[in-house]
Design goal:
This protein is an alpha/beta fold. 37% of the residues lie in helices and 19% in strands. The strands form two sheets. Strands 3-2-1-4-7-6 form a six-stranded mixed β-sheet, with helices on both faces. Strands 5-8 form a two-stranded antiparallel sheet. Helix 1 (14-29) packs parallel to helix 2 (46-55). The longest helix has 16 residues, at 14-29. Bound molecules: uridine-5'-diphosphate and manganese (II) ion (MN).
Length: 252
């Protein structure tokens, strides 16, 4: 399998496992030819693990505590970097030559295998600060060297937003002014905030969405009723349809 390519996501709680299931099913529904991989932490339930095994090609256990002693000790003093360190594990998946990371709160709306034509680090602009990329969807090359560099960077500089996005943006700092092919179109990481900040563009281009990202507090699987735009509400309905769909029919 060396040299293969994979879509990778992460779930550290049972709630995020629901999201991960939808990521895998929506990728399959749209006929991806790549492998699907989910990284999970040991705390998730047997039931969630079972549901993930059903829809992913690979379920890979990861544990922040597996990091080497230097990292482990430093991490104890920086518990806020826990989820970030867990996400960084994706760079250790060296059985693959190239991967696309998708947050567990994304929904794939069409075949997006063309993302593998891009190089590390390709990502779409963050709507809040477009000179930063959003780390919910990105193309990367697994490499233990890069993984080590990222951990060192995290320990030395922390993360300016406390999460993986701040860290990845300061590590891949050439992104905003560098190679334009590494700037993914916004439709690969569409989120509701553009509905508030640029409504006409959302209305004009929103239906071209390729990947929807439910970033922020109101995840589709949470009970919280959010006031959403009609388009966003339709995406949430689509999410539920995928979540409740039968695995066998979703491959059709
Ligand atoms: N994540 C997780 N458990 C958590 C928080 C985050 O597994 O408790 C993973 C999950 O894949 C999630 C990603 O980290 O999609 C980034 O977090 P989130 O999507 O909540 O951040 P947002 O996109 O809302 O900024
Ligand atoms: Mn997200």
């Amino acid at each position: 399998q060396a040299g293969g390519e994979a879509f990778v996501t992460l779930a550290t709680t049972d709630s995020y496992c629901k999201g991960a299931v939808v990521v895998a099913r929506s990728l399959r529904r749209h006929g991806t030819t790549r492998s699907t991989v989910v990284m999970v932490t040991p705390n998730i339930s047997e039931q969630s693990r079972f549901a993930l095994k059903d829809v992913f090609d690979e379920v890979i256990p990861v544990d922040v505590m597996d990091s080497d002693d230097h990292v482990h000790l430093s991490w104890l003093g920086r518990p806020e970097l826990g989820i970030t360190f867990t996400k960084l594990h994706c760079w250790t998946l060296t059985q693959y030559s190239k991967c696309v990371f998708l947050d567990a709160d994304t929904l794939v709306l069409c075949n997006v295998d063309e993302l593998f034509e891009r190089d590390e680090l390709s990502a779409a602009p963050d709507p809040g600060w477009p000179d930063c990329f959003n780390s919910g969807v990105f193309v990367f090359r697994p490499s233990l060297h890069t993984h080590g560099g990222l951990l060192d960077h995290a320990l030395q500089h922390g993360s300016f937003d406390g999460g993986d996005q701040g860290l990845l943006n300061s590590f891949f700092s050439s992104w905003p002014a560098g190679d334009i092919s590494k700037r993914l179109p916004f439709v690969y990481n569409l989120n509701a905030s553009s509905f508030y900040s640029y409504l006409p563009a959302f209305q004009q281009f929103g239906h071209n969405a390729k990947i929807v990202h439910f970033l922020g507090a109101g995840k589709p699987w949470s009970q919280r009723e959010e006031s959403r735009s009609l388009t966003m509400q339709q995406f949430v309905c689509l999410w539920w349809k995928e979540y409740l769909s039968d695995t066998t029919s979703s491959t059709a």
